[in-house]
Specification:
- About 45% of the residues lie in helices and about 15% in strands.
- The chain is an alpha/beta fold.
- The protein folds into 3 domains: about 5-120, Gyrase A, domain 2, CATH 3.30.1360; about 155-220 and about 400-460, Four Helix Bundle (Hemerythrin (Met), subunit A) (Up-down Bundle), CATH 1.20.120.430; about 230-390, 3-Layer(aba) Sandwich (Rossmann fold), CATH 3.40.50.
- The strands form 2 sheets. It has a 7-stranded mixed beta sheet.
- The chain is flat.
- It binds guanosine-5'-diphosphate and magnesium ion.
- Magnesium ion binds near residues 246 and 267.
Length: about 475
């Protein structure tokens, strides 16, 4: 990858918009931009300068018969140009950003003019890759840029922003430091070995190892939640017919998405919608009521309900709080035993004093959430219970957690290497061998932040970026 040439790309999304931005980065950025711009002032670092985008003299559309083209005839657009001087820019190169009106024709023309003057079209993610290769960002921060751009909820954006700030790297740093200290200790031990001095006793090594592996295991444990934040989860709403599944679904979706009728067996196909709960994308699936189907369509619907139930990350079992739980309810509850599930007793608005007195009002499960899809009562509690069940309670965003599969894999590899090191100590394996495990763990650390990288890793990370970032 060449770092010395000047690259260009349209940084705003394809299509028309109020403004479109073209970004030039590299040593020739100013020189390449100059002939196409007529500005009110000289470019100054970090200042937006108003001006015109013009056809460079002697190029482009010439009026037939005219000896020379006037300045006014060469004007294409009005622009605002911002200059960031090396090294105080996104990539640490000289950067010129030209904000024109957002016409794809104009933006493409700027790119073509720049290409004709020696700029090169940027690869996807190349600006960010330069920022990484020039040491302005580490790899976790570069990945955070991508996550931020791809975020679907504000919460995901905030999580990515924390990582862009270096939250994960900061969390890893002291752990890595401890690992390096241990390696140094053992390396020193080897040097002294010929003099028959054992510098580190096994106990000291094990204690030191624990100081590395324990916080690392804690970090690894955040990955379940991190996955949920990053990818979201699926939630299947199941229960007997007519208990209010579709009504609850509509409540959670906040619009009338699924058909609700007083007729049991209304929902036959799966109805699915993605919503944000606590900033996490949740794919809600409304299902057909589980009973022996009255016709073929309903029977198929019930089979689909069972499939949705078995595949969902979380199951919402809906009961009718005005009715004594039947066998089907009991069977459903048994089916979700040991699985992440939330039990809801719906239609709580119908619990009359009389019903309560007849003890029907007692909850089937003490942990159940009471809701009314009609009045909206308990819906807030239901959302909270869903988040709680998925492990979203009490995780500190600021302290950094694992949302990225690449990081998860490396942390778990590192944990395994430390585990092997512990066994090596227990088996009184020579320290040279023990060190191999520790270096292995260290290498995984460095791969996370990008302190050591290979082209494969870079392709993997930056290949998923959009152009112009
Ligand atoms: N009073 C009351 N009626 C409800 C509630 N939830 C649903 N219903 C009614 O119960 C019937 C069945 O609702 P629906 O959502 O189609 O149930 P589903 O078959 O489980 O999807 C409809 O007439 C709804 O208006 C509730 O919380 N309170
Ligand atoms: Mg329904």
């Amino acid at each position: 990858m060449n770092l010395d040439d000047t690259i260009i790309a349209i940084a705003t999304p394809p299509g028309r918009g109020g403004i479109g931005v073209v970004r030039l980065a590299g040593p020739e950025a100013r020189a390449i931009a100059a002939p196409m711009l007529r500005l009110k002032h000289e470019l100054e670092p970090n200042r937006a300068i108003f001006g015109e985008l013009v056809e460079p003299a002697g190029e482009g559309v010439e009026i037939v018969g005219a000896a020379t083209t006037s300045a006014a005839e060469r004007r294409i657009d009005e622009v605002v140009v911002t200059y960031f001087r090396k090294p105080h820019s996104y990539t640490t190169d000289d950067i010129v950003e030209i904000a024109a009106h957002g016409s794809p024709v104009v933006l493409r023309h700027i790119v073509e003019l720049a290409l004709a003057r020696g700029a090169r079209l940027a690869e996807p993610g190349e600006f960010t890759m330069r920022a990484f290769l020039n040491g302005r960002l580490d790899l976790t921060q570069a990945e955070a840029v991508r996550d931020l751009i791809e975020s679907q909820t504000l919460f995901q954006a905030k999580v990515a922003a924390q990582q862009l700030e270096g939250a994960l790297s900061k969390r890893l740093k002291p752990i890595k430091q401890k690992l390096i200290e241990l390696i140094a200790l053992l390396e020193a031990g080897i040097d002294f070995a010929e003099d028959d001095i054992s510098v580190a006793a096994d106990q000291t090594i094990l204690a030191h190892l624990a100081e590395v592996s324990q916080p690392l295991e804690e970090l690894a444990a955040t990955s379940a939640y991190g996955k949920v934040v990053h990818e979201g989860f699926t939630l299947a709403i199941v229960g007997r017919p007519n208990v209010g599944k579709s009504s609850l679904f509509n409540r959670l979706v906040e619009r009338e998405r699924a058909i609700v009728t007083a007729q049991p067996g209304t929902t036959r196909d799966l109805v699915s919608e993605t919503v944000a709960i606590g900033g996490i994308p949740v794919q809600l699936i409304d299902t057909a009521g589980i009973r022996n189907g009255v016709d073929e369509a309903e029977t198929i619907g019930v089979r689909k309900s069972m499939e949705a139930l078995s595949e969902a990350d979380l199951v919402l079992v809906v009961l009718d709080s005005t009715q004594t739980p039947g066998d089907e309810d009991g069977e459903l509850l048994r089916m979700v035993e040991g699985r992440p599930a939330v039990v809801v007793e719906n239609k709580c608005d119908l619990i009359t004093a009389e019903l309560a007195a007849r003890a029907h009002g007692a909850k089937v499960k003490t942990s159940a959430v009471r809701t009314s899809a009609v009045t909206g009562e308990g819906i807030g509690e239901l959302r909270a219970a869903i988040l709680q069940r998925i492990g979203a309670g009490g995780v500190q965003v600021e302290s950094g957690f694992l949302t990225n599969v690449r990081h998860q894999k490396l942390v778990s590899d590192s944990v395994s290497a430390l585990e092997a090191a512990k066994n090596a100590v227990a088996n009184r394996v020579p320290h040279e061998m023990l060190l191999l495990d520790l270096y292995h763990a260290l290498r995984k650390f460095d791969e996370i932040t990008g302190a050591t990288t290979t082209d494969d890793i870079l392709n993997l990370v930056f290949g998923t970026f959009c152009i112009g970032k």
